[in-house]
Amino acid sequence: MNFPILSSLILLPSIGAFFLLFSKDKDHENSTTIKYVALFTSFVNFLISIYLWYLFDQSTTSFQFIENKEWLKGFVNYKVGIDGISILFIILTTFITPLCIISVNNTVKIRLRDFLIAILVMESLMIGVFCSLDLIIFYLFFEAGLIPMFLIIGIWGGARRVYSAFKFFLYTLLGSVLMLVAIISIFWISGTTDIIQLYELGIDVKYQNLLWIAFFSSFAVKTPMWPVHTWLPDAHVEAPTAGSVLLAAILLKMAGYGFIRFSLGLFPVASEIFTPLVYVLSLIAIIYTSLVALMQEDMKKLIAYSSVAHMGFVTLGIFTITQQGIEGSIIQMISHGLVSAALFLCVGVVYDRMHSRLIKTYGGLVSVMPKYSILFMLFTLAALGLPGTSGFIGEFLILMGTFKDNFLVAVIASLGVIFGAAYMLSLYKRVFFGKLINKDLLKMPDLNNSEKFILWSLAIPVLFFGFYPEPLINTIEISVKNLIEMYNFNLNMSSVQNNG
Amino acid sequence: MDNFDLIFPEIFISLSIMFLLILGVFKKNSQNIIHNLSIFSLSITTVLIFNNHLDNNILLFNESYVIDYLSSFMKIITFLGGIFVLIISSRYLKLLKIFQIEYPILILCSILGMMVMISSNDLMVFYIGLELQSLALYVLASFNRDQLKSSEAGLKYFVLSALSSGLLLYGCSLIYGFSGSTNFNIIADTMNSNQYGLTFGIVFILVGLSFKISAVPFHMWAPDVYEGSPTSVTLFFAVVPKIAALTVFIRFLYVPFINMIEQWQPILIFLSIASMIFGAVAAIGQNNLKRLVAYSSIGHIGYALAGLSAGTNEGIQSSVVYISIYLVMNLGLFSCLFMIKRNNQYFISIDDLSGLSKNHPILSLSLLVILFSLAGIPPLAGFFAKLYIFKSVIEQSMYFLAIVGLLSTVIAAFYYLRIIKVIYFDKEKEKYDMDHSIWLRMSLALSTLLILLYFIFPSKLVEIISRINII
Question: Which of B383, B388, B407, B425 to mutate to test binding with chain A, by most A CBs within 10 Å of its CB?
């Protein structure tokens, strides 16, 4: 394979954005063209990523489609490649982005061109995060994503957008700078930042704890884990719909991906030591944020808190370090990517019509917007993990992995599933059932074509992978197995070293 | 005669200063010609530097003057800085009605002083260069003489700078007293690190030099002088003298006193940490862009000093990389400042940038790139500058310095974000003028593109700089 398919995946959206930069967005006619250009670019990217999945060899554990070029001499190489874990996230990214672009029809009123440029640049950077095989390259993409997201929240956001944008930026930057120190230290300790080489070499045990904490500080903020999750509700509530979707569906997944790829892969000894910490924080996230979500009056905030709870499941699953746990976490991330994106889009639908996100504005919507109610129901059920939806597969596997590892933790985490059902169903009940009191709601039209298209294209994979998760599991199975084998091997090696 | 070949750039620039001075006196209304001729002569001098072998390491005039790769490189970026300052400032000076023949000539004088500083291998030569540079800068600071603030800036700078020069001279005499020579190489040979007199001498000289680069706690002059001086002079202040002073820092610490690293390293670390934190925190409350640039330059000098404190060749190189990238970022930032004008009046408060992105999308995009780069966000050039600094610092296991430095980038990010917020999130104001000179546009475009696309070939600059070998 000589064609640099990964680099073209990374570059293509940016090239699209570059072309958009030269267009004028004054008159209305132009804005449709601009949108089609952006949509076309991201759709082509989606097709390429599907083709990539088709080419992807599911039977090998090594990284594929590797590109390696000298970049910073004697320090960093530009190295990208994918394995079974990263390809799913890449496809998730390329799948969600076109939907975001379609959704701007209804939500973004000003400076459409700049918004689309920001979204496309964001797509480039996120794909870069998932396929970089060098720590510095990873950091580069990871951090650069802050710039477009800051602008998306700040320019097109709601009333408190400035506060939220600053909080988002500074929180994540603060977490990440420690990771930069750790990355440079790894270079100093091992002489390379190449992930494949680092997997083989392993990292000196005596440094692992500090390095793990530094990486953790960055990923914990991004995940977000309790107690550094407070930026997320603010950012979600203030961001425009497409921004919330990107944030929930993909940005949060960078951290989960980072945990699997770096925390487990590079620092097995430290991961073993800190597993109880992650368990406790995840459990607090699951229980506490579920309770907080129950109390929310704002629909977007409720879904944001539910995201924190779901990501709590993900971190829990990752650190069980069992085949089921990690597979479950990955599927949960994919499923949450689809479901939370859909829920935010659903909230966007009524927000565009009523300009209110408060639950009490609504009530009895089921008679006004039946199609919308059906789809919202489907995503609600997927969010609470009903069998037959993709949410179930993820949560089930995670809990299975947790039961293997620690019974008590699993029991507490299972409580979270119940709370999840409680807040999602109460949201649904308060918005859709009951008496229709607010007469303005009667004027609301049901879903238009583009909204229908977006929501159905999210609903189909949610249902499909709920009934038939084989394609997902097949893709990640060998990579996860390899990761766990490597993890245990390194762990034994270091314990042998310590005893000898 | 070989010697004169090697210092031909210096001779050429001195001759052109005298020629331009005479021309200015005898020819009426020759401001434009002199301005252009000084740009021309600076460009010629840049080319003349390449005439010598860059990898030379030659000592001239009783070993008191050194021509090596470091000096050639630093001179070249000094010239480039000077050329750009002259190119983009002519219009500004005309509008302020201070477009006079003295301006380019004074800049040439101070650049000559910097050349002497950069190449000095002797305390006396270094002091002469420093004074030549400083005297020209005092006048430049108060160049807008009808303005109270500008005169105040010049006077303030003069008084405080004279004080620091005094300290510096006292340090020189202490070192001369305890080592018996003013020549760097001889001091290195005869030095005995147990002599406290030498340590005192180093401390005094470091104080004097820190003053010139405005490192905390010797920074008090910077905000007032930056604010009071004409903006084009502020740009000159913000980068060009720092290049020269940093070179002296490198040469002074690493040639005669490399064996006393235990003594000076803690001082440098303190200066660096204090500058990084103070620069970041103090800039938050500023509303005047020029004052803000002053504080941000204090912070940036802190990073450059962090590289120097590592005590390795990599550390020196990372500092030089930093200052080069910093030069480009400042050129871009000031090009933007020169564009914020309406009805021939310039605006320098942050509020004046409000909603700039609606009416001036390209200008705001450049500002966005430059400000994020100053904040050190990847993939812009400023990130790589910081990356190299922290790499060299961590290689010496100075984790504390690295972590403090990175945390202060987070604080500093706040005030850069505040400007971006004003530009992008706030309500728009009236349109600003669009009739910028082609040179201003070009320098903005060039610096923005350099910053934005630096990540494509990030090792080019480093390769050039990695030929600097001091230790």
Answer: B425
- Sign of the dihedral defined by the CA atoms of residues B78, B84, B87, B90, in that order: negative
Instruction: Indicate the pTM of the whole model.
Output: 0.92
> φ and ψ at A320, to 5 degrees?
-75, -20
- Both tokens of A137, joined, read 């390259």
pLDDT of residue A391: 87
User: Tokens 């310039």 map to which residue?
Assistant: B346
What is the pLDDT at residue B5? Answer: 78
- What is the tens place of the pLDDT at every residue in A265-296? 888 888 888 999 999 999 998 999 899 988 88
Residue B68 is given by DSSP the state -
The per-residue DSSP string of A282-305 comes to HHHHHHHHHHHHHT-SBHHHHHHH
pLDDT at A6 over 60: yes
Long-range contacts of B397-401 (CB under 8 A, 24+ apart): B398/B269, B398/B309, B398/B310, B399/A181, B399/A185, B401/B269, B401/B272, B401/B273, B401/B306, B401/B309
* End-to-end Cα distance, chain A: 45
Task: Verify whether the Cβ–Cβ distance B407 to A174 is below 8 Å.
Answer: yes
Nearest CB to A151; choose among B394, B424, B463: B424
DSSP letters spanning A216-263: HHHHHHHTTPTTS-THHHHHHHHS-HHHHHHIIIIIHHHHHHHIIIII
On chain A, the residues whose CB falls within 8 A of the CB of B395 are 188
According to DSSP, the residues that pair with B349 across neighbouring strands are B288
Chain A / chain B CB contacts < 8 angstroms: 81
Rounded distance, CA B268 to CA B306, Å? 7
Alpha-carbon gap: B391 to the closest alpha carbon of chain A (Å): 6
Number of H helices, E strands in chain B: 20, 4
| Alpha carbon distances (Å) from A328 to A86, A279, A336, A347, B304 | 15, 16, 12, 27, 47
Chain B residues with CB-CB distance to A78 below 8 A:
none
Could you state, in chain order, the average pLDDT of each consecutive group of 10 residues for chain B (471 residues)?
Answer: 77 92 87 89 89 77 86 91 89 84 90 92 91 91 86 90 92 89 85 79 91 88 89 89 91 86 89 92 89 91 91 90 92 89 83 85 89 90 91 88 90 90 86 84 91 88 84 74
Contact B409 A150 (CB under 8 A): no
Query: So what's the ipTM on this one?
Result: 0.90
How far is it, in rounded angstroms, from Cα B296 to Cα B279? 6
Residues in B lying within 8 Å of A, measured between beta carbons: 361, 372, 377-379, 383-384, 387, 390-391, 394-395, 399, 402-403, 406-407, 409-410, 413-414, 417, 420-421, 424-425, 455, 458-459, 462-463
By CB neighbour count within 10 A (0-12 exposed, 13-18 middle, 19+ buried), where does A439 fall? exposed
Chain center to CA of A396: 19
Phi, psi of B67 (to 5 degrees): -115, 110
**What is the number of other CB atoms lying within 10 angstroms of the CB of residue B258?**
14
Helix (H, G, I), strand (E, B) or coil at B219: coil
Strands B58-60, A76-82: parallel, antiparallel or unpaired by DSSP?
unpaired
Residue A142 and residue A329: Cα distance in Å, rounded? 20
Give dist(CA B271, CA B464) in Å, integer. 28
What's the per-residue H, E or C state across A152-185?
A: HHHHHCCCCHHHHHHHHHHHHHHHHHHHHHHHHH
- What whole-number distance in Å separates Cα of residue A395 and Cα of residue A377? 19
Using a CB–CB cut-off of 8 Å, the residues of A that contact B are 70-73, 75, 114, 136, 139-140, 143-144, 146-147, 150-151, 154-155, 161-162, 165-166, 169-170, 173-174, 177-178, 180-181, 184-185, 187-188
